[in-house]
UniProtKB/TrEMBL annotation, chains A, B:
GO terms for cellular component: cytoplasm. L-glutamate binds at residue 41. Belongs to the class-V pyridoxal-phosphate-dependent aminotransferase family. SerC subfamily. It comes from Apibacter adventoris. The lineage of its organism: Bacteria, Pseudomonadati, Bacteroidota, Flavobacteriia, Flavobacteriales. This is Phosphoserine aminotransferase. The modification N6-(pyridoxal phosphate)lysine is found at residue 192. It catalyses: O-phospho-L-serine + 2-oxoglutarate = 3-phosphooxypyruvate + L-glutamate; 4-(phosphooxy)-L-threonine + 2-oxoglutarate = (R)-3-hydroxy-2-oxo-4-phosphooxybutanoate + L-glutamate. It is found in: Cytoplasm. Homodimer. One of its GO terms (molecular function) is pyridoxal phosphate binding. Its EC number is 2.6.1.52. Its cofactor is pyridoxal 5'-phosphate. The gene is serC. Residues 4-345 form the Aminotransferase class V domain. Gene3D superfamilies: Aspartate Aminotransferase, domain 1, Type I PLP-dependent aspartate aminotransferase-like (Major domain).
Amino acid sequence: MKKFNFSAGPSTLPEEVLQQASEAILDLNKSGLSLIEISHRSKDFIAIMDESRALVKKLMKLDDDHEVLFLQGGASLQFLMAPLNFLKKGSKAAYIDSGNFASASIKEAKKIGFIDVLASSKEANYTYIPKNYEIPLDVDYLHLTSNNTVYGTEMHDFPETSVPLVCDMSSDILSKELNFNKFALIYAGAQKNIGPAGVTLVIVNKTLLGKTGRDLPSYLDYQVHISKESMANTPPVFAIYTTLLNLKWLEKQGGVSAAAERNKIKADLLYGEVDRNPLFRGVCEKVDRSLMNVCFFLNDEEKLKEKFDKMWKDSNIVGIGGYRSVGGYRASIYNAMPLEGVQTLVNVMKELEKTA
Amino acid sequence: MKKFNFSAGPSTLPEEVLQQASEAILDLNKSGLSLIEISHRSKDFIAIMDESRALVKKLMKLDDDHEVLFLQGGASLQFLMAPLNFLKKGSKAAYIDSGNFASASIKEAKKIGFIDVLASSKEANYTYIPKNYEIPLDVDYLHLTSNNTVYGTEMHDFPETSVPLVCDMSSDILSKELNFNKFALIYAGAQKNIGPAGVTLVIVNKTLLGKTGRDLPSYLDYQVHISKESMANTPPVFAIYTTLLNLKWLEKQGGVSAAAERNKIKADLLYGEVDRNPLFRGVCEKVDRSLMNVCFFLNDEEKLKEKFDKMWKDSNIVGIGGYRSVGGYRASIYNAMPLEGVQTLVNVMKELEKTA
């Protein structure tokens, strides 16, 4: 019996994507060869790469200034590549400290240049998204983190500004519609809504590149990857192919707007129960709640934790333990989590209330 | 019918590895979860990571000073990380220019510090391995590339020196026994003898780190990855697991020494035919011939290429086209290529001679 996997990332993928990926390991397109042993310069793989990039552009409605790259090293390497490619020598950039990954991105950027942290919610253990900060006009970019998996907060609005926006969208990309063309740079580790771990999606406005005065190492230079169409070196073949399968699944399900509707329904159902059920409470400010990661506490852990944990495990639920620095529970309900999974968890919460 | 895939990388993998990887995409260890949707912090994945690192140490007979890391970004990112971690500020390093990847590593290192290129075979289109150069004692390390896939040359001896050795072993690692403990740093993209594309094996002598005076970005700092046991960020789960399967296969086949014996037999068989058959000739100096990538030309391409190409394709052979800058043919015969595949190619070459 299929389990409902609420892990924060790597996370659940559609059953048909797993099936197709599994088959391609044995035989890709009836070629007699495995996906993972063909040359990345083969016609078959170049077609996979081209289709993947084109489908990201289509699903996100990207204009011609925006290039799609599939890189390695996760968002962690992008913490470094963002300032290297967008922060001019001697200039400064602005960051918002809205969670532990935002904080990590600031730490890396400070090794490259001057970083102005405009606002932070650290003093409240990152339980809200900082707002109402002033954006200086003399910064090269403003760096944002759109969703925080650890605390379950999400940016529901983006600042209107002439300053170029750089955003780590690792954990809510493709979950809702946005004008992605207004961003100078978007990056996202694949292992939530995009595909399996091992590839990083980068979307970059190429007209803004090449202005920092830095002589960059090749792998850290977006312009190198653009000129080589993400094939400057051997790409992570399996992760890109499985990403393509997952993007095709998303398209078949109606694309990003339809996913957004389903995500809203799932999140409303689960937050509704967290708020209604007197045994539970949410972790963060309601207005900033994430539609991807629903974090909540049991009010009386001492009395009920053991019982609740047994109940959800018995219901084929896995992966709802909270992050180590937060505790409690975290249910990650990315695009691939079916409503049935959320309903199952809600039923367990109701059952606990009845029997507690 | 299974094809014989002579691709240079990504390259052929053992059938049982493909089977096991394919199954794990659907269900890992009968857990009811896919390999690619479990958390990298789960007990199952931590066990995979630990076993992979331990098995590399065992197969390569590494001592306790040498740490095993699984990183992303390919050898290309190591071209940068090697000097960042081993080249002191204001100091210099020595490089040998033995091929196009060696040349690329020099280009990246020159962005970090002073690089002394001790010898190059570029003027002979890299058809031999430079030898008899003097190694200055005041360099922080000597960088070597042990095998060149493009031209089919391989280092059969390493210099005896007190200077720390850094080696890109992407295309011959695990193919023969060496005293790996004498190296300060070894790195290798996985997609030849290690596993699928998407992970880079790094072996580093940790006692030599932390001496450059550089404040490194986290992802580029070996010490960060060592302290986090290759989990500083989400690792490429699929590539690491499939690497583990492949390492287990290698161990079951008798380990590195047994692989070396098989590789010698395969290479002797194919080079023997290249030298015997009057229709063919080898690309590079015999003494430097690679046991992994056998490069050869047809003497009369105009007359025989079409016929030969049809013959090997009809024999279920794929991937023996030469690299674009070299032309001719290249048969990559890594650990996973069975003797039967090499024999099939040799038979086609003999058949061509008979019917030409």
